[in-house]
Amino acid sequence: MSKPATGPLAGLRIVEFVGLGPAPFAAMQFADMGADVVRIARPDATPKIPDPISGRGRPTVEADLKNPDQVEMVRKLCDGADALIEGFRPGVMERLGLGPDFLLERNPRLVYGRMTGWGQTGPMAACAGHDINYIAITGALAAIGPAGSPMPPLNLVGDFGGGAMFLVSGMLAALLSAQRTGAGQVVDAAICDGTIQLMTMAHDLASAGQWQPRREANLLDGGAPYYCAYECADGMHIAVGPIEPQFFELFRQAVGLDEATHALRADPRNWPTLKDKIAALIIKRPSTEWLALLEHSDACVSPVLDLHQAAQHPHLVARESFVQMDGLTQPAPAPRFSATPTEARPRPHDIMPLADAIRAWAQERPTSS
Fold this sequence. Notes:
By secondary structure, this protein is α/β, with parallel strands linked by helices. Helix content is about 35%, strand content about 15%. The strands form three sheets. It has a seven-stranded parallel sheet, sandwiched between helices. It has a three-stranded antiparallel sheet with strand order 7-8-9, covered by helices on one side. Strands 10-11 form a two-stranded antiparallel ribbon.
């Protein structure tokens, strides 16, 4: 159906129902790792081929899910699949005749991945929402941002961290189980559930009495003067993170802080004073000078880069952490595998006929090389 894959999931077949945000990102992860993924899109979808980056590596087929004949064709595609990804509200797939009970009866090994914000059950399950809502009820949003107001962390914590990545890990676990037992199952991946998991370290600190329920008052939320960003003379910022005493000592000496700084460092009550002292030093010199002095040391200092600058950073260039494809700079697949290397595959530009997708999957499965 597309260029043969060589990743660790080569030969795995997944049906993806086109949606937004975390579901296509999860499908991209599977495609990057070599899975054969087919996207099901509505004929009236705009644009026809969505997600120029997160939609990479897999063909799109159109299906009118209000047409019983085309629904049956989609069922046949699912009959030959190992897994399915959908991100609709609870009950939508059931109303379309594509719910898990029906499809698992036809294909008992199917792993049915469901990506939602609130989950398949609970009083909020049927409600609309977005990343900011899902992370708000988990304690994550309240912990992020300056002291005066919570700050949405893009949609990294909810959609992609608490959502897509937990969907991927859950589906992989279910696929392993299906290999052993022959029985598929439903994976209910709720962004709110995954975000709570991401907050495990904060709960650890709270249980030990080391977490204050306010922003900029804790070790990792910008409260500590040795774990935050500082503005330089050129308007750029540097990220400073020498948490351990030995690393802070390197930083202290390099920027010219006196030895009494250690006493300020040890007591959180002194953190605002120490932060002001460090800020007053860092603002005197441009970021280039600070980075030349500190970036390649154990002082734990890095430049704060935008998306364009990040793609040009020497470390990320050396690791080929970005790839050029379809005229776009894109994140390279991650993680990396020594024996079954992954590859970012181009996004097909043409709509694939549904019948062709079914015929292709009727053939012998490909194997990784």
